[in-house]
Amino acid sequence: MFNTIIKTSLISLVFNLSITSLNFFFGLYFLQITRSAFIFGTLTIIGPLVSLLLTPIMTRIVDTVAHKKILLTAQIVSLVFLLAYWVVVSDHLDVGTLVYVYILMIIIRVSEELFIVTLKASTTQLVEKHKYQRLNASVQSATSVANILGPIVGGLAFSLLTLPFFVFLIIILVGVSILSTSTLKLDPLHRIAATGKNSFLLVIKFIKGRPEILSLVIIAMFINLFASAITIGLPVLVINQLSLSKLVYSFLESLTSVAMVVGGIILTIHTIKDNLKIMYQSMFYFTIIIILFGFPELITHSDLIIIGLLGGLVVAFGLIVVFANTAMTTYLQMEVPENKQGGVYSIINAVSQLFVPLGGLCYGLLFDHFESYQVFISSGFLALVIIIGLLLLTKKRIIKRI
């Protein structure tokens, strides 16, 4: 069982790292060629848009097809298109070949999204029920590491390697991921029983009939929106308003990533007894953290104290995100029928990812026109009102458990 958890986490790490670093590499390449921040930004928004558009199709696939087949197919499709790009286009990267990059990244993003949703829905086949949280936390740590290393690897590759050679390395990594996935032991039989009995509308109906699950979907949406207050506001606060160095900002940003990895490791050891309770408590603390981000510049002028306060807040933010994500995933795996898990995860992933660029756009405008402490404090209170409202709209039995 322990080997399954480690193997699954490593597969997630390798595949996600490959896609993240490749996307960052292409973004830098076309930023250099076109000098357009818009082109760079469009490569980052492909994933959320594709996820939203293909949610009904992914729901059908994940809930009716054998999971191992989906996991392998998603990676093999990525491998085939990477090979085609490597052979045909990669030696002639310029503005004229931009369309090929978009096609490649769309295909890979679709494959990645299908892979992520299917892997989450496969937890019930990979480990026993009391091991769900350990597997989720381990995969969460692996994903966090991939998100940390992806831009670093992509940036270094951009500086040191040619495009064809880097694409070739990504092809090797994806190949390793495919071979590792082929060794996972998944039960293909239970998928057959679900065939023809599900649809996207049925999953929507199921979510609407479970107010606590509906509230989690809405929370996933808003947490990505309000998290942008921190991801967009932190560099504005540190560099522009407090006039601290970029090194300080990099240090604080790295603390968030390290906290997320450490949080995942903690949850592989410590078992959460009530996932729903932890989820709502995490959201409450999340709103408090946003509010507190508005105070360091108001209460002191000491750079050292401000850095210390911000450091504590970003660590708390990273831990909260990991605890909330792990608790939500584990709760859904225990409460949602297996033949509907793919649909539920697809919907949550789609709506939450869509609100990342929307949050970035909204908070970019807000921080341009208001002081950072005003944005942080008002956002935190607004988020708190939303969380309390969701609690009041769910069943009394949930409120009693909190």
UniProtKB/TrEMBL annotation:
Q: What is its main location?
A: membrane
Q: SUPFAM superfamilies in the record, alphabetically? A: MFS general substrate transporter
Q: What InterPro entries does UniProt report for this protein, alphabetically?
A: MFS, MFS_trans_sf
Establish whether keyword Membrane is in the entry. yes
The alphabetical list of record keywords is: Cell membrane, Membrane, Transmembrane, Transmembrane helix, Transport
Q: What GO terms fall under cellular component here?
A: plasma membrane
Transmembrane segments in this chain: where? 12-31, 37-58, 70-88, 100-119, 139-159, 165-184, 213-239, 251-270, 282-299, 305-332, 344-367, 373-393
What Gene Ontology molecular-function terms does this entry list? transmembrane transporter activity
Write out the annotated subcellular location.
Cell membrane
Respond yes or no to whether keyword Membrane is given for this record: yes
Superkingdom is: Bacteria
Q: How does it sit in the membrane?
A: Multi-pass membrane protein
Name listed for the protein in its UniProt record: Multidrug resistance protein possible tetracycline resistancedeterminant
